[in-house]
Amino acid sequence: xxxxxxxxxxxxxxxxxxxxxxxxxxxxxxxxxxxxxxxxxxxxxxxxxxxxxxxxxxxxxxxxxxxxxxxxxxxxxxxxxxxxxxxxxxxxxxxxxxxxxxxxxxxxxxxxxxxxxxxxxxxxxxxxxxxxxxxxxxxxxxxxx
Length: 145
Prior knowledge:
- It is a single chain.
- By secondary structure, this protein is α/β, with parallel strands linked by helices.
- The protein contains three helices and three strands.
- It has helices spanning 12-27, 79-92, 118-132, and strands spanning 51-55, 96-102, 136-143.
- Strands 1-2-3 form a three-stranded parallel sheet, covered by helices on one side.
- Helix 2 (79-92) links the parallel strand 1 and strand 2 (96-102).
- The longest helix is centred in the first third of the chain and has 16 residues, at 12-27.
- The chain starts with 11 loop residues before the first helix and ends with a strand.
């Protein structure tokens, strides 16, 4: 089952121990910490699941030798390889992705924008897959070059 588990399905003891431990750590004997708990009332939820980094980059950064984030992504037009990649991502069951981009993929020169460049097409492939599969995306610009 993907997504968050309802609070009433989680062991109450585990929740109590977790909250108590956090209170002890953060209070550190300096302040009094008071909390109340009701398994019938949910005030907020956090997201958890299986995720990964997926970079929309296919060229090396200047001064680097690349690495797993570069060069391993197929060209946007290679449908066969993208289907293999999608099949593997589906098998892994991702709930969220952190997608890293560089400014150069949409602004190759200062004040010159191109949203149809080679690496932008890679980004669109990733985002289309995520949307189709209800995967949360944290889009993060890593580099300003």
